[in-house]
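Chain A, query sequence.
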Amino acid sequence: MNKLPTVFVIVVNYNGSTDTIECINSILNSNTDSYELSIIVIDNASDKNDLRKVSSFIESQKKCRLIKSGTNLGFTGGNNLGIKSALEAGADYIFILNNDTLLEKNTINNLLKFLLRKKEAGIAGPKIYFAKGCEFHKDRYTADDIGKVFWSAGGVIEWNNVILSNRGVDEIDSGQFNETIETDFVSGCAMMVPSAVFKKIGLFDDKYFVYLEDVDFCLRAKKAGYKLFYDPDSVLWHKNASSSGKPGSSLHVYYQTRNLLYFGIKYAGILTK
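Chain A, predicted structure.
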């Protein structure tokens, strides 16, 4: 009997125990007929009460393991800690996942099957909706629209001004993004990566701390010859920036601005620089 591939899901927690536990529960409810599941939760030095809640929950779950960072390493450092642990444990595939997400039961299954079909793929990302009630523009939508509003259907880079955007954001799903496409980047909110990619190009760039490290990683993968894909058959819901303050918070704006400058200097053309 052939051995099933191992998929390690990496989730970083920073004072977000409620979201993290909901996220893990959705992972544990996943269909695992095509893979062996392991979950690594990295706690980025949360306060004692939050850490206690996460620890208590994880201790009761056989497929989960908690790593305490001891200090806040950011999204980059936290995930890198988890990725290193997964690689050491022999992971075949690593699924980077925000703690403020909820999976459909076949999200991981479908992403894995997609990567197994597309041998040239280095990274695959799912169709991502806003979680109910977390939309940017709540007054635009009817009750029937909620839960079907796009957060991302792949990533787009406009290089002249170094503008990064999520394809389809704020649109209601009417089937307009149901085709598989190559994409400029896959959001670190949810990206499935064969372990071989990390072994070839390295981990996330720790200089970013949080935001744009995913786009940087994607460009390095493309430079190494891999292709990036959006897979519409894989679906999840995103609460959006729950762990770093809501969009527009001082933390959000600071790292988005600082990292965009770093990213632009690193990758943009001479005139844009």
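The chain is about 30% helix and 25% strand. The two ends are 55 Å apart (CA to CA).
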